[in-house]
Write a structure and sequence with these properties.
The protein is mainly beta. It has a domain at 222-329: Leucine-rich repeat, LRR (right-handed beta-alpha superhelix) (Alpha-Beta Horseshoe). It contains 2 helices and 20 strands. The chain has a 12-stranded mixed sheet, with no helix packed on it. Strands 8-10-12 form a 3-stranded parallel sheet, with no helix packed on it. Strands 15-17-19 form a 3-stranded parallel sheet, with no helix packed on it. The protein is elongated and about 70 Å long.
Length: 329
């Protein structure tokens, strides 16, 4: 008997070869990072990640938009070249905004050595900020509008790469750790609407890269520190209902890059409206700051000013006609 074996059609062979080649050439996230994501998802309460799909892809709940600046629900990867000149993907960003996450913040972020961005804004996360984050290389941390408690761990001062730290609208408390003064690259520090106490650490004078500092709606004590003058790159400064006392430091005049200055509810010594040298100020709020005397003439020179609020002070004098385009609060 002769048995004939028919060769598969050429097209089938080509499809098989191409499929095999694609599988061999496709880059996969390292197993330890996949396992880290599994633990991170469990801690956060993120239940729709499908680990049968590629975490660096768009299927399986990993996000349909990989643009970090636009997405609200995505894990983003980037390829890096290893010691053997192979291209290997690593997780660089986790953004989970408005996901109704019910869990807590994951200590396991340090197991993603290339992670730069972690944003879990507007969820229901509780518990504390993990001290383990101090061994990461994060650039941006945003945990805004959650239910976090406890204090900011001093270990965050070890994240030498950090650019932005935003913990607004939680239930955090305690004194701010002086170790945050180590963050020489920090551009944004946003602490509004928590229960922080104590004086601002003197070491904050070392945060000379800061452009945006928000301290309002807290329970700080002591005066607004004179070291504010050292933060010469500040463009945004919010000290509204912070608990800090006046007067407004006279050397605030050295902050020539200010565009938005908001200070309110200061107790303490009476003082005059401080001299401000920034021609770029668009919003100036000095509400209930124990200010006395006449309105300073220099206000007329602030041609960029859109919003002015000097209410609940003891000021006198006339409002110049040059303020016709300013929105008074």
């Amino acid at each position: 008997m002769t048995i004939l074996f028919s060769a598969p059609p050429l097209i089938s062979v080509l499809v098989l070869l191409c499929t095999t080649h694609f599988a061999a050439a496709s880059t996969l996230l390292p197993d330890d990072e996949v396992e880290a994501l599994r633990e991170i998802g469990e801690t956060l309460g993120k239940s729709d990640w499908d680990f049968n799909a590629d975490p660096c892809g768009v299927d399986g709940g990993w996000g349909d938009n990989k643009d970090i600046d636009a997405t609200s629900n995505a894990v983003t990867c980037q390829n890096f070249t290893d010691a053997d000149n192979n291209s290997v993907p690593h997780v660089i960003s986790i953004v989970l905004r408005n996901q109704s996450l019910p869990g807590s913040l994951p200590p396991q972020l340090f197991r993603l050595p290339y992670l730069k961005n972690f944003d879990v804004t507007r969820n229901y996360l509780n518990g504390i900020i993990p001290k383990e984050w101090g061994s990461t290389k994060l650039r941006n941390i945003s945990v805004v509008i959650n239910r976090l408690t406890g204090s900011i761990p001093k270990e965050l001062g070890n994240i030498s790469t950090l650019w932005e730290l935003n913990v607004e609208s939680n239930q955090l408390s305690g004194a701010l750790p002086p170790d945050l003064g180590n963050l020489s690259q920090l551009i944004q520090l946003q602490l509004t609407s928590n229960n922080f106490t104590g004086e601002l650490p003197q070491r904050f004078a070392e945060l000379t890269a800061l452009q945006d500092l928000r301290l309002g709606d807290n329970q700080f004590t002591g005066k607004i520190p004179d070291f504010i003058q050292n933060l010469s790159n500040l463009s945004v400064l919010f000290i509204q209902a912070s608990g800090l006392q006046g007067p407004i430091p006279s050397r605030i005049t050295l902050l020539e890059k200010l565009t938005d200055l908001r200070i309110s509810d200061l107790n303490g010594t009476e003082s005059q409206v401080p001299r401000l040298n920034s021609a770029n100020i668009k919003t100036l709020i000095l509400r209930s700051c124990n200010l006395i005397g006449e309105l300073p003439d220099y206000l007329e020179e602030m041609t960029s000013l859109n919003i002015l609020d000097l209410s609940f002070n003891k000021l006198s004098g006339n409002i110049s006609s040059s303020f016709r385009k300013v929105n008074y609060l």
